[in-house]
Write a structure and sequence with these properties.
By secondary structure, this protein is of the alpha+beta class. It is built from 14 helices and eleven strands. The strands form four sheets. Strands 3, 4, 5, 6 and 9 form a five-stranded antiparallel beta sheet that branches. A two-stranded parallel ribbon has the order 1-2. A two-stranded antiparallel ribbon has the order 7-8. Helix 4 packs across helix 7, helix 5 packs antiparallel against helix 7 and helix 12 runs antiparallel to helix 13. The protein is elongated and about 100 Å long. The N terminus is likely disordered.
Length: 398
């Protein structure tokens, strides 16, 4: 029993060793020999930053294809695959930290390759996104997530995997060898081995479902509903961060939750959505507090002015505006609170307390408005008397 268990464990490790690598290496076609050669000549002083690398590339190449190839070749030849940390995939790590690690160590896993390529490409005028998902090799779906890139090159979207394109693993060692299969791959080819979590990044009008990917049925099926990915991508680019998360989660669920990797991504998205909703609620609540405090300040300034019996003298419109400003701020505070949806218990308690404070301030404000109305309806000779309270046997006379 123990012997069989060890065999299974070793088999899984061998399978996972290729999660961020391609199995079959291929000699480069030769079409990019000159570009690849120049990629190796980037001065050391410029290699220290992505801006320096992109500066070298844009000054030496005009076409987006050549620029993209230079970046691909530079990343593939400059970054060593980190076999020791191949299981440490963390899509939620800070992007700047990932890039810094890749450049300082000249070593990394799939996300380091992808983020570094993406950063240089975008700085070189090539719109690029990092795509996350999972892969299939030798008919089996891998157990670790993977990262690659999507680049808009000369008005067409291509998929680029700088990790698989940099070499392969053999007998526990990384063998560096550029594989052109993973440079500017067409979406209908890449989907055979690379499945993004969000089907938007398939760049296919008839996306492949998770189940079909597992079954190897990745051929284009025009009997499916048409998916206008260019328009969806345009909307994606215009949406807020939370809007992107909500839309992406919906597409992921519709495409099928086939494995734990997809489930983990959905759970992460939901946590992020809740986090942003909480942040938004806090932001709106704080805005309500700001308007409430502003209203109280205006109200206190008016009461202080009233206590000084409206001196120095102001025009009627100015006095009424003092009250109006207080009312405007308090009303805005109330509107902000009403806009907060589904608050947690702590936020709900804070909202209730602030609402009561606003109501009390509004009652005071209405008293002040009544006084102002009465003041300006009273003849000028008698106005001064309004600032005093007259009583008879404890009963107010005014």
């Amino acid at each position: 029993m123990t012997h069989n268990s060890n065999i299974i464990t070793r088999f899984l490790v061998i399978m996972l060793l290729f999660t961020c690598q391609g199995l079959n290496a291929q000699e480069k076609t030769g079409d990019f020999r000159r570009v690849d050669a120049l990629a190796l000549q980037i001065p050391d002083s410029q290699e220290r930053t992505t801006q320096g690398i992109s500066g070298y590339i844009t000054s030496n190449f005009n076409s987006q294809t050549d620029r993209s190839r230079t970046i691909f070749a530079w990343v593939a030849t400059s970054i060593q695959y980190d076999i020791d940390n191949m299981f440490a995939v963390n899509f939620y790590q800070n992007t700047d930290e990932i890039i810094k690690e890749a450049q300082s160590r000249h070593k990394g896993i799939c996300q380091h390759f992808a983020e570094l390529y993406s950063a240089i490409a975008n700085q070189s005028g090539i719109k690029t996104y990092v795509v996350s998902g999972y892969t299939k090799q030798n008919g089996s779906v891998d157990y670790l997530p993977h990262a690659w890139c999507a680049s808009l090159i000369d008005s067409s979207w291509y998929l680029i995997d700088p990790t698989w394109g940099s070499g392969y693993i053999s007998n526990g060692r990384f063998i560096r060898q550029i594989n052109d299969d993973y440079f500017m791959a067409k979406p209908e080819k890449m989907i055979i081995s690379h499945m993004p979590f969000d089907p938007l990044w398939q760049f296919l009008n008839y996306p492949v479902t998770s189940q079909e990917f597992y079954e190897g049925r990745t051929a284009i099926d025009t009997s499916k509903p048409f998916f206008n990915y260019p328009d969806t991508l345009k909307r994606f680019e215009q949406e807020s961060k939370i809007g992107k998360l909500i839309a992406s989660s919906r597409r992921i669920e519709q495409n099928g939750v086939r494995n734990s990797l997809i489930s983990d991504r959905l759970q992460h998205n939901r946590r992020e959505i809740e986090y942003y909703n909480d942040s938004l609620r806090v932001e709106v609540y704080n805005s309500a507090v700001y308007h409430y405090n502003d209203g109280i300040n205006h109200l206190n300034r008016f009461i202080d002015y009233r206590n000084r019996q409206f001196t120095p003298k102001k025009q009627e419109t100015e006095i009424r505006e003092m009250v109006n400003q207080a009312e405007w701020s308090l009303a805005n505070a109330r509107l902000k609170l009403q806009a907060i949806q589904n608050p947690d218990s702590n936020t709900a308690a804070s909202i209730l307390q602030l609402s009561r404070s606003i109501d009390e301030a509004m009652l005071n404000l209405n008293e002040q408005r009544i006084f102002v109305d009465k003041y300006f309806k009273t003849g000028k000779v008698l106005r001064k008397s309004l600032f005093y309270k007259y009583t008879w046997m404890g009963i107010p006379l005014n």
